[in-house]
Amino acid sequence: TVCYFNVMKKWFSQLGKNFKKTSSNIKKSIFSSKLDNASLEDIEEAFLLSDLGVNYTNLLIEEIKKKKFDKEKLSNQIAEYFEKQFEGIENFLELKNIKGLKVILVFGVNGSGKTTTLAKLASKANNEGVKVLMVAADTFRAAATEQLQSWGKKIGVRVISGSNNEDPSSVVFKAHKIAIDENYQLMLIDTAGRLHNKIELMEELKKMLRIIKKNDELAPHNKLLVLDSTIGQNTYSQIDSFHKHVGITGLIMTKLDGSAKGGSLIGISREYKLPIHAIGVGEKIEDLIPFVPKDFINALLGENIGEKK
User: Which one of 137, 179, 268, 283 counts the least CB within 10 Å of its CB?
Assistant: First the structure.
């Protein structure tokens, strides 16, 4: 849509500055047609500034040396290498063509933008004519429930919530029953933010999964981890922990409208082979963008969207 590309261009125009400057400097080099050590140091710095991480950056530099990338074709060769990290992964999250009731469980640490992201997903589905129900299962913080209820009024989506300190699994069970009985098509469950290293909170999340399966053994159909891009390489420890305890079917990365460069998404895809469904680039309802690897890579390397074929 027009809105999608407007948001993409506005944000992506800022994303590739680190690498674009480096690439330009390399192309102006008066040395041989092969990359020299100074150029490789520039590339390494650009990768690190783009938040690819030390380990993955080192792997890439060794790959560039081994394959003897040509500085005149640098951007294309690196883009092709990056694209391979996303091969075989279906990033699209279906929110429209739903048969029966689809249940999506959303989780993540406090401050990751989890509740806002859930509301944005609900709004997108609601605008497509899908009958949506949101569930406020963070019963420990009244502010969390109020936030989701506020979103519900704003986007015109019903919210089911419980009383303060009510068992979150009980709230989810009742909401799931309502969703089934009243023929809802999509149920999005907002959970309490939890530190990934708190075992008791992970056990609570696992209990919620068991409760959901009492109404539908195939649910939840998606288990989405929302990641805060500003924490950089710490995303790996969060993915490891949530994947181990509850299993992750897909990722959404938020707060890419600030100083974060988002390069960690490439390393994450290489490491875990999990779908990256969307990226959040602002607070507005339209600022949740479907993740398209080619567009993201082009922007990271300082190219225009759709420029590479």
Answer: 283
